[in-house]
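re: ur question from yesterday

yeah so i grabbed the chain u mentioned. its 148 aa long if i counted rite. heres the sequnce exactly as i have it in my notes:
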Amino acid sequence: MYTDRDRLLGLEHCLMVCLPRALPPTAGPGRYVRLTLGRGPGADFSERDRAVLTLLGPHLDQAYLACEQRRHPVALLTPRQNDLLRLVAAGHTNTQIARHLGISQGTVRTHLETSTNGCTSPTAPAPSPAPSPTGLPRAHQQSEGGLS
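ran it thru and got these structure tokens back, copy pasting raw so excuse formatting
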């Protein structure tokens, strides 16, 4: 198909691998990203070359996906995830968020995990409480005669 064009470029031998997961499912059937290796005059690609490329295919696919995620780092969030993250930013606990949104604490955790693309750690600290009106941490406020 591209023989005439490739020969004008000095390519006589080509080897191609398709990256099946590189396109989103919405791209439609028959569409894919491919990696084409070209070689000029001389020996054709060997069976060993083909085998190596076949073995590297899934790794190349994964590397391509990782590069695409770095190119487009911001994922679109659902309105529910936006609501949840606003409450987290306001300093609410998971229990408070669950009550406010009318969902379970497990659902809150799931929304947090998916909205942060799995970047949360099981040992991550809980969100800090909202600052007090005085600006001092609540633990340092005096209860009698001082700050309230």
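noticed a couple things. Residues 120-132, 135-148 have pLDDT under 50 and may be disordered. also Residues 79-128 form a domain with the Arc Repressor Mutant, subunit A fold (CATH 1.10.10.10).
anyway ttyl
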